[in-house]
Recover the amino acids of this structure.
């Protein structure tokens, strides 16, 4: 009963923090436009700001995961949100490139702690059969933020400037931080007492790193994120440059595809979470095949409306794959190493975002069209399903169980 009561409090708090996290990720590109105009930044200088975030994000995934297992998710959530809040305030006050780059670097560090600590909190709070539902609800914030952010932030920028928009996002982080400190229970202490009674030795980091579930999900997450980041970041360019549609029309097409993110995460929560418990590998395989075929049909379909539908379907299935995979560590790894394991796996997901633009640039540069890009999306979708399919069965792979 106590866990059920905690769950009713915990999920809304984590949900609010995730909304702020994804808005901050998704709208930095929008904010960068007036920022660059005001501070006279070149394209290269803007890229430094973007890259600094992902560098900070990448290097701290594993350390924060380890701290979750050692010090507890509430502690890491407080540290994470505190760093992001300070970094946002500094970014909104900055007037030099060095300050902007440094602020986004530390924002990336703060962001790195949130997914791992949230996953750890879900594991500590919810029973096995509810973890897919809870984690998918949290991931659905990506779709919500992709709708709310682009609609609201330009309005705020028009009224208060880009600095005002940054401070508004910082305010959401402050509110989430207060709620975490005030309302989020410290489940780590209870887990520590249980661990002390059982005298179970701590799992060495190398053993977590070489765990087959961690390795396979690391590769699978990298693969599916290549598909997701390619669709999210490059489709506007594709439809404008190769299909000849206007930027407005292209934005509408991508927004419709982005709706797949929201529906995909909710679909994972209510379909996979309720009806396909412990059959996730089969679900991912079917979704990967659909996503791969739909990606190819985006390019093959001459009608723009048809291409939009196939893009939506491909993105929907890819998000469902991502959401389903993100819940697997919560069910397939022993509770004592979930934080570290998720940190390692999330590093793979981050690398997918790093590799995606390089892959697209090389393929388009070599072949001159986006046909190879859509083929690559199909290939990485199938690769994802293959590596998930290689995971050991449920009873054999719960490390330490």
């Amino acid at each position: 009963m106590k866990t059920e009561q905690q769950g009713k409090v915990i999920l809304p708090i984590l949900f609010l923090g995730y909304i702020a996290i994804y808005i901050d990720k998704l709208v930095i590109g929008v904010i960068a436009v007036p920022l660059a105009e005001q501070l006279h930044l070149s394209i290269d200088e803007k890229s430094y700001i973007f890259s600094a975030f992902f560098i900070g994000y990448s290097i701290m995934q594993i350390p924060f995961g380890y701290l979750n297992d050692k010090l507890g998710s509430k502690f890491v959530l407080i540290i994470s949100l505190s760093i992001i809040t300070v970094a946002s305030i500094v970014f909104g006050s900055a007037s030099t490139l060095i300050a902007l780059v440094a602020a986004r670097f530390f924002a990336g560090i703060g962001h790195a702690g949130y997914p791992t600590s949230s996953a750890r909190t879900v594991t500590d709070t919810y029973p096995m059969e509810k973890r897919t539902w809870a984690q998918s609800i949290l991931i659905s914030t990506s779709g919500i933020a992709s709708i709310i952010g682009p609609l609201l932030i330009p309005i705020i920028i028009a009224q208060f400037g880009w600095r005002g928009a940054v401070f508004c996002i910082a305010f959401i982080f402050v509110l989430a931080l207060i709620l975490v400190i005030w309302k989020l229970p410290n489940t780590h202490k209870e887990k520590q007492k249980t661990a002390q009674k059982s005298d179970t030795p701590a799992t060495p980091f190398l053993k977590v790193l070489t765990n087959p579930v961690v390795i396979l999900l690391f590769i699978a997450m990298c693969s599916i994120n290549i598909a997701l980041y390619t669709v999210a970041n490059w489709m506007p360019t594709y439809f404008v440059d190769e299909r000849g549609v206007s930027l407005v029309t292209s934005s509408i097409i991508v927004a419709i595809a982005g709706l797949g993110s929201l529906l995909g995460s909710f679909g994972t929560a209510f379909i996979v979470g309720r009806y396909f418990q412990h059959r996730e590998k089969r679900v991912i395989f079917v979704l990967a095949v659909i996503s791969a075929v739909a990606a190819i049909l985006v390019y093959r379909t001459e009608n723009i409306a048809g291409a939009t539908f196939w893009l939506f379907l491909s993105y929907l299935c890819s998000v469902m794959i991502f959401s389903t995979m993100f819940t697997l560590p919560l069910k397939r790894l022993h509770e004592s190493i979930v934080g570290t394991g998720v940190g390692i796996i999330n590093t793979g997901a981050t690398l997918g975002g790093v590799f995606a633009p390089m892959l697209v640039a090389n393929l388009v540069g070599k072949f001159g069209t986006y046909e190879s890009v859509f083929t690559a999306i199909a290939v990485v979708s199938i690769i994802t399903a293959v590596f998930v399919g290689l995971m050991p069965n449920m009873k054999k792979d719960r490390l330490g169980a």
